[in-house]
Request: fold
Amino acid sequence: GQQLNQSPQSMFIQEGEDVSMNCTSSSIFNTWLWYKQDPGEGPVLLIALYKAGELTSNGRLTAQFGITRKDSFLNISASIPSDVGIYFCAGHYAGNMLTFGGGTRLMVKP
Amino acid sequence: GAVVSQHPSWVICKSGTSVKIECRSLDFQATTMFWYRQFPKQSLMLMATSNEGSKATYEQGVEKDKFLINHASLTLSTLTVTSAHPEDSSFYICSASDSSGVSYNEQFFGPGTRLTVL
Reply:
């Protein structure tokens, strides 16, 4: 079946830093989505991308749907403490089913 | 966005007992509901997809007789973990969508249910 490789698996951030994470797939998707999950909560949609090449922003977040339809990235600019959490990419091909990436855990540098 | 609730938010049960988890769409009619399982530090894994009024479709490796899914109305789906064992301890998350078409319709996620089996 389809698999999504998400990297990095985890990263430490310092307040004010920009953050970048990406997902790659062995096959194409028609929709790419980025979610954030806080501990003990369900995932919350951050950005949805519907077209190859699409670049979409949501506040300090920017995501792009790769032109090959097999990858996507998410950037967070000027990170703040509440950005800490787990970020998941997800891809949709057909039938409303989503395939999730392994997640990127964002932590604050001590 | 649309609101999806889950009940209970956490449950602790003894091994061998059955546990029922409810998923409700509060302000829209959910044609399709999905059940996911998430183990610690892992991603969400789809267990099954259910359409209102029909039998659920289970993912490979998910026992349909162990994880009973009922989607009797457009606002409620239930997942019953039968004869639960410690290895069933996990975070169960449902999501709901108001379409079952080919193109993507947003899934709205519930807050999750933490199941601990002793």
Q: What stands out?
A: Chain B touches chain A through 30 residues (CB under 8 Å). The mean pLDDT of chain B is 92. The two ends of chain B are 36 Å apart (CA to CA).
